[in-house]
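Standup notes
- DV: blocked on the single-chain target, sequence here:
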Amino acid sequence: MLDSRLRTLARNLITHSVRLKKGEHLLVETFDCPDEVSIAIVEEARRAGGHAHAALRRTRVMRALNRDAAEEDLRVWADCDRERMKRMQCYIGVRGSNNVSEMAGIPDAQMQRVAKLYQRPVHFEQRVPHTRWCVLRWPTPSMAQLAGMSTEAFEDFYFEVCNLDYGRMATAAEKLAARMRSTDRVHIKGPGDTDLRFSIKGIGVVPCCGHANIPDGECFTAPVRDSVEGVIHFNAPTIYNGTSFTNVRLEFKGGRIVACRADQHQRTLESIFDTDAGSRFVGEFAIGFNPHIREPMKDILFDEKIAGSFHFTPGNCYDEASNGNKSEIHWDLVAIQRPEHGGGTISFDDTVVRRGGLFVTDDLRGLNPDALASA
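- DV (later): unblocked, structure below
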């Protein structure tokens, strides 16, 4: 028997997130997930009158495919999967993870080849702009370990954050989006030497409340590409292609990363930012506000939504909030500004809108944890 919480999640994915219509085709792609996940989503899709298709993947197999793939392997693989994606109106991707470091040890150049020849044509060029999509995680013991929780406690946490009332969140988030659309200058201050300035004038703004991601709770835009100046220090640990980094610090001049450092893997860090011409410029700036997500667990779908956080993303921008930056990378780096993490402020055109992780203007207080947690 399927967990009732899973049925609720599947129903929300179909009716709220991708809004599957009668006669439309949906691809469900799962990684390291129990069969019940695909079954629940397929059943809800059929209940909505849609046509469901499933692809079940395992990350250990994905490692074997990625590790030694030649260009011909990747091009044919991408051609097949892109053609299938062209026939879909909707996509749901569910990623469990038995080992978050499964791709560790594969050379950076090989992972960059996979991103260029497979990820970009299938996902960035086809799936993202041409389907209604939603990606989410599945609670595994590996993820529970990263969160420092028991498997049972993490499952309870997972369904709490994923089955939030996202309709209510969307109403509150639209006020933040409206303020950001009228903003030119952003100024971020934080612990240590964090002091960052940039413009978001004329860039699109997108509130995210349960459509493209579950869990959700952010509002994103992008900096004017060459406007970023100053220093930013990220206090949330992060994983990129299986390699862990802590205390990433970036220095910007003219929009470009001119210096970078972290507590470890310095050579790998620099290699990431040398991927291509766009990898040293920023493609996204977003403010996170999911009330139930409080601490980082090195899983970006959760960490970028942390209450009182923001993320600043070297690499590719989104079409809905384009600043023209193109890159094979898109690395969401997270800073938490709640007092226990060092505090900090975000100002729009010299007005402080968030201090210590809490919104302080009357129009935005509905996005604070006390207001959203009751949703």
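- Follow-up: The longest helix spans residues 108-130.
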